[in-house]
Amino acid sequence: MDQFENKIRISIPKYIHEVLFIDMYDFNLNKNILCNKIFFAFHDKVDSTTYPKSRKESSILQFTLNKTNWDLFIDQFPKQKITNKSEYHRNIIIAYCTQPRYMRELSLNEFSVSRINQAINQHKQLRIRYKDELRIIEPYAILRSENETRNYVYCFCHKKQEYCNYRLSNIGAVSVMENDFENYDETLINGVKNNFDPFLSFGNVVRAKLSKLGQQIYERNITHRPHITCQEHDIYEFECSEIRAKLYFPQFLGEVEILEPVSLREWFKDGAQKMANLYQ
């Protein structure tokens, strides 16, 4: 009967354990919930011969299957002719952890992804729980960041009354509604799809003056770096939203002067004044 116990104890490569630890932190899940989500997503996708036991295994992973997954595990025994319980569960964990991060996120949220795609295809509104708040959105696409680490739902939010991106891993309690889209803009949506970044920079312009050192900083620092659309001497135009600019340009300190938009220039001006006051 040990083969059918719901308590799992397996040895895994150290790097696999590190991936699990990172995802626990990044997705805000404890170990047992994460491992159960992984099992649910992969229980019928691997078998005991998928991965050869060739990697050095130095970490012990223990978790307990919830009732639903325990029933699924018992059901898989005859279907997959499982002969080695440990190998079967090890291969499930390895199959998950060897995916790119954005694919792991999709795997953990496959139910929500299915509902979101249904709403996208049918042009229906969604009721979601986002960071413990209920919101009504019109989902237009599931898109991923340029470095392929996170997934976002591009949508129109009725509460905020604006187009925005929501992190997939922060969305819960997805329910497809009967209401049709009311704010669908095909030109805008296609533009965002073809030029996606999480900060929705498409169609937004920031003008800035860079010193020579500022130009070097731009070349060197690539995280959140906006694209240059036009340059005349030391004046640059970037395809960049204000949110993205507020994340990227503070590291330049005095080597950048934000020119436009005015609201962004005032934000940087106020920040610089506050910093100067600290050192008086």
How would you describe the overall organization of this protein?
The protein has a five-stranded antiparallel β-sheet. Strands 9-10-8-11 form a four-stranded antiparallel β-sheet. It is 41% helix and 28% strand. It has ten helices and eleven strands. The chain is of the alpha+beta class. The model has no long low-confidence stretch (mean pLDDT 91). It folds into three domains: 2-98; 110-194, SH3 type barrels; 205-278, Alpha-Beta Plaits. The N and C termini lie far apart (74 Å).
Number of domains: 3
The chain-level mean pLDDT equals: 91
Oligomer: single chain
Number of helices: 10
Low-pLDDT parts are: none
The biggest beta sheet, please?
A: 5 strands, antiparallel
Into which percentage range does the β-strand content fall?
25-35%
The geometry reads as: globular
Q: Could you say which structural class the secondary elements and strand pairing correspond to?
A: alpha+beta
Report the order of strands and helices: EHHEHHHHEEEEEHEHEEHEH
Alpha-carbon distance between the two ends: 74 Å
* Tally of strands: 11
Helical content band: 40-55%
Strand order of the largest sheet: 6-5-4-3-7
Q: Mind telling me the C-alpha Rg?
A: 24 Å
